[in-house]
Design a protein that fits this description.
Rossmann fold; 6-stranded parallel sheet; binds L-homoserine
Length: 379
């Protein structure tokens, strides 16, 4: 297997270092805008040198973001090259186009690394789907926000202080909003849901809220409730075939599996009618765990593991978040305007209400109080 590696950032460097120790996969070209001492003989800033090289059969796209990752991916697949990627943002928004093109061209687009980092979760989701009707996928899929919430919970430090530490550890996205506003998790649950249910889910249909406005006073209240805050992405397949899908800070019981997830780790629980419920945990972000997942994709291609990871979902799911209901913790300087029990100092516990209504309410309240924060209460 001869590789063209696009992007030599943290993950790109990780996969290059792994592959250097092997002799069955060779990196022939590295395409990056920067130059790296010692790698000049491989480097180019012109993607056409990868695209037009007939010896390169597989492109590893680790540029991230929407463009030029999308254009390069489409061009590589069109040229009959396999593509292996960790790019959840681009893939979640172009899933149908990319999987259809890969199928037409008889090549593979492998995205094992896009959700859950080192956890071989998507692969198992595909296998489970072949023998069961999957009904739910949920969990902690963003390592950066889990690190922040875990440290805030255990050390009582402020959000801003811990965010700086998370960024320094190399887990965060280039744009911190992607992590802390839940966008990264939104893309991941859209991908996982499409794999689980066989219907594409548009990321913009996933009601999404992040942890930007959580503060130390919230954490103290959660401790009094014997709960821990985690950023949970969840989707369920409803009896009528519609899908509910959302990302929101969630107060889980202090003795739950999610509360026990430390630092940048992830946990993803899959539910099926036949096998029940199973959880996968492990490192979901960072250089080596993500590079490991990229290498799994490469090895599957090399060893002829079939296109299980190239399913073609059929059509788009009808996403209906009016069907999912639970109570919420809400802190706002504005009047909530829904039935709720006061906790004092602008904090409330609402009556059970739908995910759709709560996310719409929070947007209205944020116009009056930008620091409005809410969290679902589940489990
Ligand atoms: N920023 C992401 C995270 C990287 O923290 O989970 C892995 O997708």
């Amino acid at each position: 297997m001869i590789i063209g590696l696009l992007g030599l950032g943290t993950i790109g460097r990780g996969i290059y270092e792994h592959l250097e120790k092997r002799d069955d996969i060779r990196v022939k070209r590295i395409c990056d805008l920067l130059r790296h001492p010692g790698l000049e003989h491989l480097e180019t800033s012109d993607f056409r040198e990868v695209l037009n090289d007939p010896e390169i059969d597989t492109v590893v796209e680790l540029i991230g973001g929407m463009e030029p990752a999308h254009t390069f991916t489409v061009q590589a697949l069109s040229a009959g090259k396999n593509v292996v990627s960790a790019n959840k943002l681009m893939f979640s928004h172009h899933m149908e186009e990319i999987l259809t093109l890969a199928r037409e061209k008889g090549v593979q687009y492998r995205y094992d690394a896009s959700v859950g980092g080192s956890i071989p979760f998507l692969h198992n989701l595909m296998r489970h789907r072949s023998a069961d009707r999957l009904t739910g996928v949920s969990g902690i899929v963003n390592g950066t926000t889990n690190l922040i919430l875990d440290i805030m919970q255990r050390e009582g430090r402020s959000f801003a202080d811990v965010l700086k530490e998370a960024q320094a550890q190399g887990y965060a996205e280039a744009n911190p909003s992607a992590d802390i506003d839940g966008i990264d998790a939104q893309c991941k649950i859209a991908i996982a849901s499409a794999v689980a249910y066989g219907q594409y889910v548009r990321p913009e249909d996933v009601d999404t809220a992040g942890i930007r406005h959580i503060d130390a006073s919230d954490i103290i209240r959660f401790k009094g409730m014997d709960r821990v805050c985690r950023l949970i992405a969840r989707s369920t397949r409803n009896a009528d075939g519609s899908v509910s899908a959302w990302v929101e800070p969630t107060l889980v019981p202090a003795d739950s599996a999610e509360a026990a997830i430390r630092l940048n780790n992830n946990i993803i629980t899959v539910e099926g009618e036949y096998f029940g419920s199973q959880s996968f945990t492990g490192q979901g972000a960072g250089k080596d765990p993500t590079a490991f997942a990229v290498e799994l994709g490469l090895r599957d291609i090399l060893e002829g593991v079939g296109p299980r990871m190239n399913p073609l979902p059929e059509g788009y799911a009808d996403v209906d978040n009016a069907r999912a209901e639970h109570p919420y913790y809400l802190r706002t300087a504005a009047a909530p305007g829904v039935p709720a029990k006061p906790l004092g100092d602008g904090a409330w516990i609402t009556e059970p209400m739908s995910v759709r209504d709560m996310h719409a309410l929070a947007k209205r309240l944020a116009e009056q109080d930008e620091a409005t924060f809410f969290a679902g209460i589940c489990g």
